[in-house]
């Protein structure tokens, strides 16, 4: 019988290896050409491996968690219809023992594995993180609607279902599990957090979870930034009154004309482009004994994905209109949710904007993403008393934080950059007349 090798695809410039994160198909499963059969974790993003031909998935040559090189053969596809095949080690390990086995007084039903194939022949493919949460909350994944690619369950789907079950169950009334901590900056994505479950009195539990390749890379790069750069953060606050008024006035016309919502990020990206023109060091980088200055601004922005935050790049932001910026961000968000962002979307970036305000952050000191030299931290908008014309009034205020490499950027330049940002946000007309 003819067999087709499934090889690790090219993953992007300078990326030579990845981790086999999850098998999406098991031996014996029928696969169509170009259908995703495995997920790889690289240093920046998850990449799906598609079937090079139609047939039946045969032997799996690596198991989940293994490191694989570009071009390596990880599986074989047999020609013809589905046939029985012995499961690979990864498939055999897919059915785990429940995290909380039934104890005295618990019903035997809790001991069953909710991620096992159903009696009607249906099968659910769950990632390790999703499977773990399903087991912890004793949920039936077949009854949860998935919002991931091809209807797959995400961790957020399961946590939402668990919360709904908890609020509707009299037996669990009054018991609330602490929420997972939200990432505070794009560099901290994706989050590798674990949902807590109520424990019996006096019971103390621990669980060891292997760090994903992406989390290991994030940890290494953040520490390298601290060890290499002379990090410093300066702050300012900005009155959001005019931006909020502009959005309220034009949001309907903007959406009708461009087919996209007018958000805050467009204002901040445009303001950053103006400020970087006046303070080019913020958009520069150190390479050896040279400083590289740029006449373009490629902005790394954080968008939510099922596994956490990813940081794609808005290229040539200085030349884009509000509509083009918002469309780019919306496209990134949609593709992040569906898992179709590519390595090319993540590469590059000369300046980063981190919006911790969407998670409720009041103030932070973000860490730069080398080789970039600066990162702007946005925070939540809240009404605070301020003085205007001698009167104390309430205004929607936001704190801005600029973390920068002091080896390249002087304090005067950092402060000037934030002042230019503040001027443009508080008077958006400046964005239109290029002041």
Description:
The protein is an alpha+beta fold and 435 residues long. It folds into two domains: 3-213, Beta Barrel (OB fold (Dihydrolipoamide Acetyltransferase, E2P)), CATH 2.40.50; 215-433, Chloramphenicol Acetyltransferase, CATH 3.30.559. 27% of the residues lie in helices and 23% in strands. Strands 9, 12, 15, 16, 17, 18 and 19 form a seven-stranded mixed beta sheet that branches. β18 and β19 form a beta hairpin. Mean pLDDT is 79; it is low at 82-123 and 170-191.
How would the blueprint of this fold be written?
Layout: E1 3-7, E2 17-23, E3 30-31, E4 36-41, E5 46-50, E6 55-60, E7 67-69, E8 73-78, H1 89-92, H2 128-137, H3 155-168, H4 213-228, E9 231-239, H5 241-258, H6 265-278, E10 285-287, E11 290-292, E12 299-301, E13 303-305, E14 308-310, E15 313-314, H7 322-338, H8 343-346, E16 351-355, E17 374-378, E18 382-388, E19 391-405, H9 411-426, H10 429-433
Parallel strand pairs: 12-16, 16-17
Antiparallel strand pairs: 1-8, 2-4, 2-7, 3-6, 4-5, 6-8, 9-19, 10-11, 12-15, 13-14, 17-19, 18-19
Helix pairs in contact: 2-3, 6-7, 6-9
Brief summary of the model shown:
It is built from ten helices and 19 strands. With 435 residues, it is α+β, with helices and mostly antiparallel strands.
Describe this protein with a few key phrases.
alpha+beta; 10 helices; seven-stranded mixed β-sheet; 435 residues; Chloramphenicol Acetyltransferase; OB fold (Dihydrolipoamide Acetyltransferase, E2P); 2 domains; four-stranded antiparallel β-sheet
